[in-house]
Amino acid sequence: MKFFVDTADTKEIAELAETGLLDGVTTNPSLIHKSGRKFVEVVEEICGIVPGPVSAEVVALDHETMMREADVLRKIAGNVCIKVPLTIDGLKTCKKLSDDGVMVNVTLCFSANQALLAAKAGATFISPFVGRHDDNGFDGMALIADIRLIYDNYGFDTEILVASVRHPIHVLESARIGADVMTAPPSVIKQLFKHPLTDAGIAGFMADWAKTGQTILG
Ligand code: E4P
């Protein structure tokens, strides 16, 4: 499963990129707002840090303006993936861009039928929002399992990008189901490294090592 980080914080992205586990980045208008930076400038910087797909979202609601915005965003770097909402205009834009060889991430997906439409429109990625689904009394991971089943039934190439990930169990379940990608905030990715037995083990080894009175570096 590929790991994308869901943030526009370039310091966090650079830190995680050093571990070699980052396959891409997702941003959205709220994350750009949180960064306090210019959209195009921050996307350009992210594209320089991570060679994989970097999602940049259009903000227009009509197809023509979405296309014009996508034209600006796709010029930023070769690894920009245009993010469009799951609407009729969004899918028209998806179809046109994917026919033109541009990566497209269809976002704000909350049903398996919507995911089917995005695949038929040639989406590179479909982003079902599991956390927001759970928040509203639905089963986010059941949605991922449904989409996996449907995409496999028909051999769609569209990659399932599990979004709105809130905790490590979402990551584990995504991997069990066979999602292609998950995108999570840096805090959730950092939680994945943690285990109390790892910490306890390090403390035990350090205590015994100190008793030897030795150093490795001399
Ligand atoms: C994905 O591309 C979205 O940016 C993101 O996962 C939304 O997550 P949220 O529901 O925590 O805002």
UniProtKB/TrEMBL annotation:
Gene Ontology cellular-component terms listed: cytoplasm
EC number: 2.2.1.2
InterPro entries (alphabetical): Aldolase_TIM (IPR013785), TAL/FSA (IPR001585), Transaldolase_3B (IPR022999), Transaldolase_3B/F6P_aldolase (IPR004731), Transaldolase_AS (IPR018225), TSA/FSA_arc/bac (IPR033919)
Enzyme class: transferase
Subcellular location: Cytoplasm
Pfam families, alphabetized: TAL_FSA (PF00923)
Active site (catalytic residues): 83 (schiff-base intermediate with substrate)
UniProtKB keywords: Cytoplasm, Pentose shunt, Schiff base, Transferase
Catalytically driven reaction(s): D-sedoheptulose 7-phosphate + D-glyceraldehyde 3-phosphate = D-erythrose 4-phosphate + beta-D-fructose 6-phosphate
GO BP term, pick one: carbohydrate metabolic process
Domain of life: Bacteria
This protein's pathway: Carbohydrate degradation; pentose phosphate pathway; D-glyceraldehyde 3-phosphate and beta-D-fructose 6-phosphate from D-ribose 5-phosphate and D-xylulose 5-phosphate (non-oxidative stage): step 2/3
CDD domains found in the cross-reference section: Transaldolase_FSA
GO terms for MF: aldehyde-lyase activity; transaldolase activity
Function: Transaldolase is important for the balance of metabolites in the pentose-phosphate pathway.
Family membership: Belongs to the transaldolase family. Type 3B subfamily.
Name of the molecule in the record: Probable transaldolase
Biological source species: Alterirhizorhabdus solaris
Gene (UniProt): fsa
